[in-house]
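>> received
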Amino acid sequence: NDGTPLEGFRAELIDHLKSTRKVPTGEIGMSEREVQQFSFVRAINALANPTDSRAQKAAAFEFEASRSACEKQGRETRGILVPADVIKRDLSVGTTTAGGHTVSTDLLAASFIDLLRNRSYMMQMATVLNGLNGNVAIPRQTGGATAYWVAEAGAPTESQQAFDQVTLSPKTLGAFTDFSRKLLIQSSIGVESFVRGDLARVLALELDRAALHGSGSSNQPTGIAATSGIGSVVGGTNGLAPTYAHIIQLETEVAVDNADIGSLAYVTNAKVRGKLKGTEKAGSTGMFVWGEGGSLNGYNAVVTNQVASNLVKGGSGAVCSAIFFGNWKDLLIGMWSGVDLLVDPYTASTTGTVRVVAMQDVDIAVRHPESFAAMLDALTT
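>> returned
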C-alpha cells in the first residue's frame, strides 16, 4: 500500500519476524530462584525410595518441573526430566579416589580438587538448536540458476536452482555414576552441585568430542572429521610434521569454496600447538607459525585435547593429530531435551549404593561441508 518495493518489504518482514517470533528453546520458563531451588539430590532420593512419602513430598517441585518439561516437549520419561533451564547450570565413601576424600571433619570444602579434564569449546562455538521435536530437515540450496549471453531477440536457456536437506535426528548420549547414601549424608562438600556438575561435564565433553570426531556409526553422530565433502590437507603417506604451508592450505580449502566467512578459527590440540610454536615459517627467519596471543596466521586458535592425537596414517601408528579450520557457526548441534535422570536403587542395593543414569538426545551436522577443512595426519614428535 505504501509503494515499498518487494525486496524492501521482504527485508522488513524478516526483521519483524526476528523481533516478534519466539524461538523454541526447550526451557519451561523457570525463574533464577526456581533454577537454584531445583535439587538433583531430592529427585534422586524420591526416585530411589518410591514408597517413602516424605521423599516424594520433598521432591514435589522437581516432579512438577519434570512434568512441565515433558508436556512442553511432548515426551515421556521413566525417571525425571531435568528441564533445559536447570541444565544451563563412581562416588562411594569406601573408595578414597571415588568419594572417600570428600568425607572429613577437617575438610576444606572450598578447596575441593576437581578432576583435570579436557577443555570443552564446541557448545560455545557452534550454532545450538534447542527444544527440537522429532527429526529435523533444514532445506539447503546446492546450486543456482545459470546466466547466459544471448543474441538480439534471443532467449536464455532455462536453468533451475538445486536443493537438498541437512537432517538431524536424535541420538542418545548417556552416562552413569554410583554414589552411596553415606556420602550423601556425611560429605562436607555440596553433593548436590558435585553430582549435577559431574554428570553435566561428562555429557558435555563427549558431545564436544563427537562434534569433532563422531564416527557416524555405532549410534554416534557424524563429526566434522567424518563429514563427506570437507576440505582435506594431507601431510604424507605416514603423516608429516605440520608446516606453515599446511596452515595456508587449510585456509585455502575453505576460501576456494567461498566459505571463508563468519566465525573462522583453528581448533587443534596441545601437541600441535607445541610443535608449531617451534616451527619457523621459513628457515632462519625467527618467525614461528604459532603466533603470540593464541593466533594462527591471523585467526583465533582454540586448543583442546578433545582433538585427537592418536590417529593412524599409513605405518605411523596411533600418533597423528588433527588440525581443523573453518566457520564454526556452520556446525549445528541439535538438542531435543534436558537431561533425563533415571535412578536405579537395586543394582547395588546390598551396599546401599544408588546408581544415577543421565541421558540426553542430541545430534550434530554441518550446514556446508565446504565451511571446514582438516589435516588428520599431523606428526608432533
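>> The radius of gyration is 26 Å.
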